[in-house]
């Protein structure tokens, strides 16, 4: 069942203003969305001002920063009050077949996130539109082995977003302790419900309000 508590209410535009961030948070509180997903520069502002679960992005959107840079960025976000961390893997390392690098990076961030307090969550963005089927299957295993909480389809900044086929694949090949987050191109409630039915438990979308007319609200905080 699709509910408001399955939605990460998202604003990741490069030109997002504090006024827009304020509106996002007001909407999230009103509709009881799971989180607000915002850029790292806004985390402390939101955490200090609103009673809302804060999600932010690390290594976003390319994933090509160094592991140490991602660790430092993650630590700052946690210090500022983030609850959910959505990290982008290094896609080039996947294409090189350097899966130990990818797993090590996820492991380090998972350890950092989970040691920072209860109910802290790491989601791993694999950018499915850039991967072949074997790479996706391999990453399902790696994300689970590395101790992350979610595998996530997309940044929304590449060549494609969430698809039903990808959600089905990620759910089929991920271990039971790893949940699936769909993101990118989720703009109507019918597609959102199909993604949930296919195995997603969280949706990242900037169209949360548009979806709400068909979604019952449930408390997430």
From TrEMBL:
Pfam families documented for this protein: DeoC
The protein's enzyme class: lyase
MF terms (GO), sorted A to Z: deoxyribose-phosphate aldolase activity
UniProtKB keywords: Cytoplasm, Lyase, Schiff base
Catalytic activity: 2-deoxy-D-ribose 5-phosphate = D-glyceraldehyde 3-phosphate + acetaldehyde
Single GO biological process annotation from the record: deoxyribose phosphate catabolic process
Record-level GO cellular component terms: cytoplasm
Active site positions, chain numbering: 152, 181
Keyword Chaperone among record annotations: no
Superkingdom of source: Eukaryota
Record EC number: 4.1.2.4
Signal sequence region: none
UniProt-listed PANTHER family: DEOXYRIBOSE-PHOSPHATE ALDOLASE
Family label: Belongs to the DeoC/FbaB aldolase family. DeoC type 1 subfamily.
Protein name listed in UniProt: deoxyribose-phosphate aldolase
Gene source species: Rotaria magnacalcarata
């Amino acid at each position: 069942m699709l509910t408001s508590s399955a939605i990460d209410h998202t604003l990741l535009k490069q030109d997002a203003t504090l006024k827009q961030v304020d509106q996002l948070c007001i909407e999230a509180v009103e509709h009881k969305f799971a989180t607000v997903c915002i850029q790292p520069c806004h985390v402390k502002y939101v955490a200090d001002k609103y009673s809302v679960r804060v999600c932010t992005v690390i290594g976003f959107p390319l994933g090509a920063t160094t592991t140490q840079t991602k660790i430092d960025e993650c630590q700052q976000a946690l210090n500022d009050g983030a609850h959910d961390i959505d990290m982008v893997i290094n896609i080039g390392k996947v294409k090189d077949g350097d899966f130990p690098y990818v797993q090590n990076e996820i492991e380090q961030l998972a350890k950092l996130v989970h040691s920072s307090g209860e109910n802290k969550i790491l989601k791993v963005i694999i950018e499915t539109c850039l991967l072949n089927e074997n790479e996706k299957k391999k990453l399902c295993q790696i994300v689970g082995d590395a101790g992350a909480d979610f595998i996530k389809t997309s940044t929304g900044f590449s060549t494609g977003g969430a698809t039903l086929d990808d959600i089905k694949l990620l759910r089929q090949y991920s271990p039971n302790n790893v949940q699936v987050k769909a993101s990118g191109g989720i703009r109507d409630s019918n597609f959102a419900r199909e993604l949930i039915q296919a195995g997603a438990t969280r949706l990242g979308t900037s169209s949360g309000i548009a979806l709400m007319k068909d979604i019952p609200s449930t408390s997430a905080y």
